[in-house]
Design a protein that fits this description.
The protein is mostly helical. Helix 3 packs antiparallel against helix 4. The longest helix is centred in the middle third of the chain and has 75 residues. It is rod-shaped, with a radius of gyration of 57 Å.
Length: 234
């Protein structure tokens, strides 16, 4: 029964406690199932051996019963012929066979009891293994969810909204400065390309046109005041 010592430990183990202490719960859960499967395989093999021993003990027990019955039948046949000495010899063999019957019966009962116990343990392990398999996905999902919540909690604990907003504000100010610099460079470049003698000449002609209009208006006004018409009108 020593082979079931580890099996018993697994059956009594608190799976949740093992998970709590494990560095990687997912790997631990999978390893537990592998261990239970290994133990089930070993237990099944030993159960098969126990059943073989039980059948052998049963066969010896039944054979001893048959031998006892045969010697009793021979003793009856000897008595039927009136041969008491031969009947006694047959009965002596029967007594020996009866002792074997008792011994094999005791052996058979003991092995049968142990085999039944092993069979019960195998069934318990099967049930536990099936339960562990059915809970495996759920436990792994819970472990992953806990990791996610832990990561989010850590992120929330180290997140400084004021500091982050200040960084954002600095980036916005930097962009504004870059835009202002770009506008200034554009204005300077425009002055360099379109300024100088070209603009002065244009201004000169514009001034001449304006002066001509002023002169025309002056001449018109003087003519009206003198009671005459402008020269252009004549």
């Amino acid at each position: 029964m020593g082979v079931f010592r580890r099996l018993s430990d697994l059956l009594k183990a608190n799976v949740n406690d093992l998970i709590d202490r494990a560095e990687d719960p997912e790997k631990m859960v999978k390893q537990i199932i592998i261990d239970m499967q290994t133990e089930l395989t070993k237990a099944t093999q030993n159960y098969g051996k126990a059943k073989a021993s039980e059948r052998l003990a049963e066969k010896k027990y039944l054979d001893a019963q048959k031998i006892s019955s045969d010697w009793e039948a021979k003793a009856k046949a000897a008595l039927a012929k009136g041969d008491q000495d031969l009947a006694k010899q047959a009965l002596a063999r029967k007594v020996k066979a009866d002792e074997d019957v008792a011994n094999y019966k005791e052996m058979f009962d003991s092995i049968s009891s142990q085999t039944d116990a092993i069979g019960d343990q195998v069934e318990v392990l099967k049930a536990k293994l099936e339960e562990a398999k059915s809970r495996q996905a759920m436990l792994i999902a819970r472990s992953q969810m806990a990791d996610t919540q832990k990561s989010l909690a850590k992120a929330a604990g180290t997140f400084d909204p004021n500091s982050s907003f200040e960084k954002f504000q600095r980036m916005e100010d930097k962009v504004v400065r870059k835009e202002a610099e770009a506008a200034a460079f554009t204005e300077i470049a425009g002055d360099a390309l379109g300024g100088g003698s070209g603009d002065e000449l244009k201004d000169t002609f514009n001034q001449l046109a304006s002066d001509a209009k002023v002169d025309a208006e002056l001449e018109r006004l003087m003519a009206e005041m003198n009671g005459g018409a402008p020269k252009d009108a004549e």
